[in-house]
């Protein structure tokens, strides 16, 4: 289904992004890993090229407009097209509210939210002729919070609002835009998890990056084009579960 399609995955060198890259590479897509982590990005590129996948790593700081432009231009030069953009790059930086500086706030917002606007704008310029899909990786933190998560929560809430706004703006060009809100996704050793961790979810387990990658494949599928401007929560039921302390 994704053969000869070009997918850009920001933040693709680690965690959820890494799983998304592997999923689309396995589905025969041309995949571009956009990340500031050069070591992991290049290692992934070498590994996937050796297994016969169409993959490229492009060092990218999503806070920089010039890096994003260069990323999209590279994609066009390399593969002649951009079909799917997955805005996954982000940071989880929690700072005590009264200690948070404007610089801290701007760093979080620019990394997590402004980058989505910039990447979508540049990629959509090339998607306009043949259509495409943009998928934004938000968070359940857009709907529920712990203390001292203001910057992160605001960035993810803004991402969901930007998703439906972009869906409206880009619909004449057959570019659909959706977001995914992961809950607790464990990106390291699952053996670290306790039974209590698992019981916080109706699915009786903690999420893994592959859970999000599968939803990306679903939303990128052109047969699912009636899903547009939507946010899909993937959290094992955690945000719906009522908790009483007895």
Output the radius of gyration. Answer: 18 Å
Estimated structural class: alpha/beta
CATH fold call? Rossmann fold
Termini, distance in Å? 51 Å
Mean pLDDT: 96
> How many strand units?
7
Count helical runs.
7
N-to-C SSE string, H for helix and E for strand: EHEHEHEHEHEHHE
Residue runs with pLDDT of under 50 for 5 or more positions: none
Lateral arrangement of strands in the main beta sheet: 3-2-1-4-5-6-7
Main beta sheet: strand number and arrangement? 7 strands, parallel
Domain count, please report it.
1
CATH class: Alpha Beta
Strand content: 15-25%
CATH architecture: 3-Layer(aba) Sandwich
Relevant CATH superfamily:
NAD(P)-binding Rossmann-like Domain
Shape: globular
Structural overview:
- The protein is α/β, with parallel strands linked by helices.
- It has one domain: NAD(P)-binding Rossmann-like Domain (Rossmann fold, 3-Layer(aba) Sandwich).
- It has 7 helices and 7 strands.
- A 7-stranded parallel sheet has the order 3-2-1-4-5-6-7, with helices on both faces.
- The mean pLDDT is 96.
